[in-house]
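Worked example 3 (structure in, sequence out).
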């Protein structure tokens, strides 16, 4: 296989990158030199719902999803697709209970809400946690796909990092949220087209869907649903429906990028529709990624490129497949590699705009409340440019880190989402939750997450991948060490496996004595940290205010709870009036 991109491929990649730049320039020119902060951060609340829907879907799903999900499915089978079950109810919960609060308060950042509902101590504690993990996230989001592309296609690592970094910094800085959203629209369409092209081409090559399914069953990947009620099993219907629900709830209600998109809609109803359909759209894209992974497995059914030594990491399987199957069709490898770039651009630009909004609304506005809107917007653009350059530096720094450290960074980013979600739930659903409870819950949730993660690395056994075959490879392989880069970001090694689909394999022995707490599926981690935060927050709130109960302003509560609270308050007043009347009698 010729693993070098052609000149036409580079032209196609450049064209896709230039389109992203062009969208940013268009909205910068359209806004003019007097672009307001409302236009820069919220798009003047005049963005069509369909654009917000596609932007939400593209923002949440990163280049690691585009590359990593098929690799996960390739190794562990299609049961990962069960996580789509969480997108049945989470979009409804998000749009009904959370979006109206953000939209009615007209906040630019979720941290403004936290400050209004609790106090600035809780607000800046959450900002510190989110910003720290956010910068790590953006740096690694540029590095991870660039590394996979460079190893599998020969594309320069430095070229990939600089392309993503400079382009997203450019159009995000000059165009603001509208440029980011409309670029997301283009990038979401590119990702969808890329996934469909890979599925169709691979299916045709292997002889049709029926042959693909037969190969999946023959390779031990025919199980679509696992009903075992065991928290330690990697993927079950319960981890997909329950555990993943907390992950996607956190994505929908705590990510700064999401709140900006909800509030960029023209009406509250439009924001609710966008939130609901956008989160459902992530399920569609992820199921397509699952289908890509199954298609790639069927294509390499009897000659796995990992065990045969043609690639060294599972996250190279998608770019390797692209180069393998499309090399004879000039331009197609460039189109599909460009889709990977689009996925990276979408997630990084959205995160960058969110970080800049936080710096502007939660720091600059606090320090310089009298700053004119023009100066404020201009300063925000300069900050965006500076943060973009910092992200590029972090991406290059990531190239000097070991794989284990990178995986730890991903895990730290995951640990922080649950407790922040818990703080938002405390604020909107528990009228008596106070700042002491919110801060204690935040600290408690992070502590539980760190303990579980560290314990899982020290004590837990690793889930072995399903069997892979090299029975019809042209090269001979005696022993392979397989390093698995999967969605929960840990490394699995398998040694001494030879060709065919063996019924048994020389896997590392399972540590049955490991505590069950440290062996739970990674899909439950955010559920664990969210629930821990809420329970600690409720306990501390009631313990510190039992003799002086204070309840939140109803405007900070989800509409359902606000109505219940108003009803109970009226009933309480009626009872007091009746008691006073009876005393007089």
């Amino acid at each position: 296989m010729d693993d070098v991109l052609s000149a036409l491929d580079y032209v196609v990649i450049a064209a896709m990158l230039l389109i992203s730049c062009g969208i940013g320039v268009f909205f910068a020119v359209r806004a003019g030199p007097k672009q307001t902060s409302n236009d820069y951060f919220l798009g003047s609340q005049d963005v069509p719902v369909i654009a917000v829907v596609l932007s939400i879907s593209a923002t949440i799903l990163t280049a690691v999803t585009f590359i990593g999900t098929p690799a996960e499915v390739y190794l562990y089978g299609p049961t990962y697709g069960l996580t789509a079950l969480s997108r049945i109810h989470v979009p409804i919960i998000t749009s009904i209970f959370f979006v109206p609060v953000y939209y009615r308060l007209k906040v630019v950042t979720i941290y403004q809400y936290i400050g209004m509902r609790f106090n600035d101590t809780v607000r800046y504690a959450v900002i510190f946690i989110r910003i720290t993990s956010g910068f790590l996230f953006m740096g690694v989001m540029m590095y991870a796909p660039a590394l996979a592309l460079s190893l599998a296609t020969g594309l320069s690592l430095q070229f990939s990092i600089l392309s993503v970094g400079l382009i997203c910094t450019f159009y995000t800085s000059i165009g603001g949220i509208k440029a980011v959203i409309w670029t997301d629209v283009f990038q979401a369409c590119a990702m969808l087209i890329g996934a469909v092209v890979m599925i169709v081409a691979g299916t045709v090559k292997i002889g049709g869907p029926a042959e693909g399914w037969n190969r999946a069953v023959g390779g031990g990947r025919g199980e679509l649903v696992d009903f075992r009620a065991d928290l330690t099993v990697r993927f079950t219907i319960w981890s997909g429906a329950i555990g993943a629900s907390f992950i996607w709830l956190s994505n929908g209600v705590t990510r700064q990028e999401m709140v900006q998109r909800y509030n960029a809609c023209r009406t509250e109803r439009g924001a609710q529709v966008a939130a609901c359909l956008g989160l459902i759209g992530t399920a569609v894209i992820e199921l397509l990624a699952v289908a890509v992974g199954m298609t790639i497995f069927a294509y390499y059914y009897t000659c796995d490129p990992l065990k045969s030594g043609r690639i060294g990491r599972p996250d190279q399987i998608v770019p390797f497949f692209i180069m393998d199957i499309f090399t004879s069709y000039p331009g197609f490898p460039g189109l599909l590699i460009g889709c990977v770039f689009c996925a990276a651009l979408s997630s990084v630009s959205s995160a960058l705009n969110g970080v800049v909004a936080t710096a502007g609304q939660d720091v600059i506005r606090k320090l310089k409340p009298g700053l004119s809107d023009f100066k404020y917007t201009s300063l925000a653009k300069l900050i965006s440019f500076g943060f973009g350059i910092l992200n590029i530096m972090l991406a290059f720094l990531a190239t000097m880190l070991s794989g284990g450290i990178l995986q730890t960074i991903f895990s730290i980013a995951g640990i922080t989402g649950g407790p922040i979600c818990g703080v938002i739930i405390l604020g909107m659903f528990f009228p008596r939750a106070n700042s002491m409870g919110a801060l204690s819950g935040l600290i408690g949730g992070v502590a539980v997450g760190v303990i579980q993660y560290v314990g899982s690395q020290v004590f837990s056994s690793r889930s072995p991948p399903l069997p892979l075959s090299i029975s019809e490879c042209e090269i001979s392989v005696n022993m392979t060490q397989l390093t698995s880069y999967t969605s929960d970001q840990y490394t699995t090694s398998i040694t001494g496996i030879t060709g065919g689909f063996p019924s048994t394999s020389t896997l590392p022995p399972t540590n049955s004595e490991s505590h069950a707490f440290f062996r739970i599926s990674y899909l439950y981690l955010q559920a664990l940290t969210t629930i821990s935060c809420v329970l600690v927050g409720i306990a501390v709130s009631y313990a510190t205010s039992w003799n002086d109960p204070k309840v939140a302003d109803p405007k900070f509560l989800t509409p359902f709870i606000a109505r219940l609270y108003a009803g109970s308050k009226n009933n309480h007043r009626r009872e007091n009036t009746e008691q006073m009347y009876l005393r007089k009698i």
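Notes: Confidence is low (pLDDT under 50) at residues 476-513. The radius of gyration is 25 Å.
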